[in-house]
Design goal:
182 residues; mainly alpha; Rna Polymerase Sigma Factor, Chain: A; Arc Repressor Mutant, subunit A; 2 domains; two-stranded antiparallel sheet; 7 helices; 2 strands
């Protein structure tokens, strides 16, 4: 049984009231959700957003469509929790602190090693896509479902974000490990 099938079965059991299945689901997914939220929500709110995500999941578990991925369902909720958290923080502070994301992976055809990108310079719509595709590892189709847009919109936003990040890297001395485009 694949891990995706296992997660689907656990969430199905949780929807029927099986608390231990829900606890196992949380145990298996919490590090992924935490990793996603830490790149999205204000640092001071990460724990609250993760907790809010699982509270929302518990409350909405009976509306889960078992023909779809439990992981996508979970990250749709995490995305909404993060968005709500950002709205709340911006109302309180009127501006969000810039955050840095440590990346040691390939983004498109650009290889970044031990680099720091300031994702706060991206428009929210592009930042969301970068985090979901690059950090959380979702496919374009899964990302489109989570954000509620078409797959082509995901591709377009990711392309624009990559262009902005390339330009940022050219003007930022902290990205001296940037390799030439393929």
């Amino acid at each position: 049984m694949s891990s995706a099938d296992h997660l689907n079965r656990l969430l199905n059991a949780a929807a029927k009231g099986d608390v231990s299945a829900f606890e196992e689901f949380v145990r298996l997914t919490k590090s992924q959700v935490y990793g996603y939220v830490i790149g999205f929500a204000p640092k001071s709110q990460v724990e609250d957003v993760v907790q809010d995500t699982y509270m929302r999941l518990w409350k909405s578990r009976t509306s889960y469509d078992f023909r779809k991925s439990a992981r996508t369902f979970l990250f749709t909720i995490a995305y909404r929790s993060c968005t709500d958290s950002l709205r709340s923080a911006s109302r309180e502070a009127k501006s969000l602190d810039a955050f840095k994301l440590q990346i040691n992976r390939t983004i498109g055809s650009i290889t970044l090693e031990e680099s720091t990108l300031d994702l706060s310079t991206l428009p929210k719509e592009q930042r969301d896509i970068v985090l979901l595709v690059t950090v959380a590892g979702f496919s374009y189709a899964e990302t489109a479902e989570i954000v509620g847009v078409k797959v082509q919109t995901v591709k377009s936003r990711l392309h624009e974000a990559r262009k902005r990040l390339i330009e940022q890297s050219r003007t930022t001395s902290s990205l001296d490990s940037l390799h030439k485009l393929a």
